[in-house]
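Comment thread on ticket #2218

A.B. wrote:
> Attaching the input chain for the structure job we discussed in standup.
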Amino acid sequence: MTGLILTLLSTFFTETHDSIGKNSVEQGKQSIYTMGFLSLIWGFVFFLLIIAYRGEFLFSAASMPTFLIRAVLEVILAHLSLLAITRSDRRTFSLVR
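C.D. wrote:
> Ran it. Output below, let me know if you need it in another format.
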Protein backbone atom coordinates (compact mmCIF):
# COMPACT_ATOMS: atom_id res chain seq x y z
CA MET A 1 0.00 0.00 0.00
CA THR A 2 2.87 2.36 0.80
CA GLY A 3 4.40 1.71 -2.63
CA LEU A 4 1.14 2.61 -4.34
CA ILE A 5 0.84 5.86 -2.39
CA LEU A 6 4.46 6.80 -3.17
CA THR A 7 3.93 6.03 -6.85
CA LEU A 8 0.78 8.14 -6.98
CA LEU A 9 2.48 11.06 -5.24
CA SER A 10 5.52 10.81 -7.48
CA THR A 11 3.40 10.74 -10.63
CA PHE A 12 1.31 13.67 -9.42
CA PHE A 13 4.35 15.84 -8.67
CA THR A 14 6.10 14.86 -11.91
CA GLU A 15 3.08 15.68 -14.06
CA THR A 16 2.52 18.95 -12.19
CA HIS A 17 6.15 19.97 -12.64
CA ASP A 18 6.11 19.04 -16.32
CA SER A 19 2.96 21.06 -16.97
CA ILE A 20 4.24 24.12 -15.10
CA GLY A 21 7.63 23.83 -16.79
CA LYS A 22 6.11 23.49 -20.25
CA ASN A 23 3.98 26.60 -19.70
CA SER A 24 6.99 28.55 -18.41
CA VAL A 25 9.09 27.57 -21.43
CA GLU A 26 6.26 28.48 -23.83
CA GLN A 27 5.85 31.89 -22.17
CA GLY A 28 9.61 32.54 -22.28
CA LYS A 29 10.00 32.76 -18.51
CA GLN A 30 12.65 30.04 -18.47
CA SER A 31 14.72 28.04 -20.89
CA ILE A 32 14.51 24.31 -21.43
CA TYR A 33 17.82 23.94 -19.58
CA THR A 34 16.51 25.77 -16.53
CA MET A 35 13.53 23.43 -16.53
CA GLY A 36 15.87 20.44 -16.67
CA PHE A 37 18.04 21.77 -13.86
CA LEU A 38 15.06 22.41 -11.62
CA SER A 39 13.65 18.95 -12.25
CA LEU A 40 16.94 17.18 -11.52
CA ILE A 41 18.20 19.21 -8.56
CA TRP A 42 15.64 17.77 -6.14
CA GLY A 43 16.79 14.20 -6.72
CA PHE A 44 20.38 15.34 -6.17
CA VAL A 45 19.42 17.08 -2.92
CA PHE A 46 17.53 13.98 -1.78
CA PHE A 47 20.59 11.78 -2.26
CA LEU A 48 22.82 14.35 -0.55
CA LEU A 49 20.52 14.23 2.46
CA ILE A 50 20.76 10.43 2.53
CA ILE A 51 24.58 10.68 2.40
CA ALA A 52 24.57 13.26 5.20
CA TYR A 53 22.26 11.12 7.32
CA ARG A 54 24.35 7.98 6.87
CA GLY A 55 27.62 9.85 7.21
CA GLU A 56 29.33 8.01 4.37
CA PHE A 57 29.42 7.85 0.59
CA LEU A 58 30.27 4.46 -0.85
CA PHE A 59 31.58 4.29 -4.41
CA SER A 60 33.66 1.49 -5.84
CA ALA A 61 36.26 2.23 -8.51
CA ALA A 62 35.31 -1.06 -10.16
CA SER A 63 31.94 0.42 -11.12
CA MET A 64 33.50 3.33 -13.02
CA PRO A 65 33.18 1.86 -16.57
CA THR A 66 29.45 1.25 -16.28
CA PHE A 67 28.96 4.49 -14.34
CA LEU A 68 30.51 6.57 -17.12
CA ILE A 69 28.37 4.90 -19.79
CA ARG A 70 25.24 5.38 -17.72
CA ALA A 71 26.08 9.02 -16.96
CA VAL A 72 26.40 9.83 -20.68
CA LEU A 73 23.18 7.98 -21.49
CA GLU A 74 21.32 9.74 -18.65
CA VAL A 75 22.33 13.17 -19.97
CA ILE A 76 21.10 12.22 -23.45
CA LEU A 77 17.87 10.82 -22.01
CA ALA A 78 17.24 13.92 -19.91
CA HIS A 79 17.77 16.19 -22.92
CA LEU A 80 15.46 14.16 -25.16
CA SER A 81 12.81 14.00 -22.43
CA LEU A 82 12.88 17.77 -21.99
CA LEU A 83 12.56 18.29 -25.74
CA ALA A 84 9.62 15.88 -25.82
CA ILE A 85 7.89 17.63 -22.92
CA THR A 86 8.21 21.08 -24.43
CA ARG A 87 7.45 20.20 -28.05
CA SER A 88 4.66 17.64 -27.81
CA ASP A 89 1.05 17.83 -26.82
CA ARG A 90 0.63 16.60 -23.25
CA ARG A 91 -1.77 13.86 -24.26
CA THR A 92 0.70 12.48 -26.80
CA PHE A 93 3.68 12.61 -24.44
CA SER A 94 1.82 10.80 -21.65
CA LEU A 95 1.03 7.94 -24.03
CA VAL A 96 4.62 7.68 -25.21
CA ARG A 97 6.06 7.91 -21.72
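A.B. wrote:
> Thanks. Noting for the ticket: The chain is about 80% helix and 0% strand.
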